[in-house]
Amino acid sequence: MSDQPAPADTARQKLGPRTADAVRAHAARARADVDRYAAVLEDIATNGLPSVEHCTPWEELREAQLARLAAQRPAVA
Predict the structure, then answer these.
(1) DSSP letters along 29-44, please?
(2) pTM for this model (two decimals)
(3) Over the stretch 29-38, which tens digit does the pLDDT of each residue have?
(4) What is the mean pLDDT of each run of 10 residues along the chain (77 residues)?
(5) For position 73, what pLDDT does the model report?
(6) What is the CA radius of gyration of the chain?
(7) CB contact at 8 A, 15 and 23
(8) To 10 degrees, the CA torsion angle through 11, 12, 14, 15?
(9) For the chain, the helix, strand and coil percentages under 3-state DSSP, each to the nearest 5
(10) What pLDDT, on a 0 to 100 scale, did the predictor assign at position 6?
(11) Most exposed: 3, 21, 35, 49, by fewest CB within 10 Å?
(12) d(C-alpha 51, C-alpha 40), whole Å
């Protein structure tokens, strides 16, 4: 993608200020996630893979994520 703004197109539907801000915030979060991922890959390329002793088993990561998701979900009566 280009850093240049899209050319003015009269066929486009303008977003409201709050919606545009929300889209920009989402883009910033996505950009930050990609930057973190790239940093991890660069670290692996530079230093190699971490030893097994310093890694978290995927089962623990899965359970932690499921617990986070369950905490965000409203309880059903």
Answers:
(1) HHHHHHHHHHHHHHHH
(2) 0.55
(3) 999 999 999 9
(4) 66 93 97 97 94 92 94 75
(5) 82
(6) 20
(7) yes
(8) 160
(9) 65, 0, 35
(10) 66
(11) 3
(12) 15
DSSP SS3 for 51 = coil
Q: Residue type at 54?
A: H
| Token digits of residue 41 | 């890959």
Query: Residue for token digits 């230093």?
Result: 47
CA distance 65 to 69: 6
Between the alpha carbon of residue 23 and those of residues 6, 18, 42, 62, the distances in Å are: 15, 9, 28, 29
Cα distances from 4 to residues 7, 8, 12, 24, 60, in angstroms, run 9, 12, 17, 15, 43
Q: What is the largest CA-CA distance in the chain?
A: 58
> Where in 1-77 does DSSP place strands (E)?
none
Q: What is the DSSP letter of 57?
A: -
Dist. CA 24–CA 29, nearest whole Å: 9
